[in-house]
Sequence to fold (193 residues):
Amino acid sequence: SQEEKVQVIIQHWIRILKIKLGWIHEFEKLVINYVSSFVLFFLNINQNIQMFIKHSAVNSIDYSTFDDCQFICSGSLDETVRVWDVDNNKQIQSFNGHSDYVNCVKFSSYHYHNYHRNVICSSSIDRTIRFWDFKNNRQLQIFNRHTSDVCGIEFSPFNGGRYLCSGSGDKTIRLWDVETSRSLYIFSGHKDA
Fold:
């Protein structure tokens, strides 16, 4: 079966790389290549495969720990952003604020380290970047200066993640200050999304 093939591939991969615990960034590629678009797989501490069937198709996932709890967030073609509790193997939150496909999701280290808030940032074809407080179940901020779909987002590895870069179908990259919600700079020059 497809599940057995995926399990063999993942176990072999783990054995080769001698992975103990933690997130594997190449895992997204493995999910895309070997798993149907209706299922999100991930590894738990015992390296068993767990399934969550909620999304119609997953575009992006991210992993983080907050207060010794492990979480995965996911963004989907069903226009939702979801949060999963890894330790309890269940969905704990779903946000429906985007009006089109969610392209990218990231946990915000900036909000956690500065305000002790559990926040996810998501980007969408609807031209927005949204911040979600998943512990308090509310939307915090919206960045809406792109003129086309926002394909990807990435927090800065410096200044505690205060800065966010976003790439868009409008052929630009924007640099944002998360603290002030301002677009600081627009990088132009790409000829396509």
Observations:
- The chain is about 15% helix and 40% strand.
- The two ends are 38 Å apart (CA to CA).
- The first helix runs from residue 2 to 17.
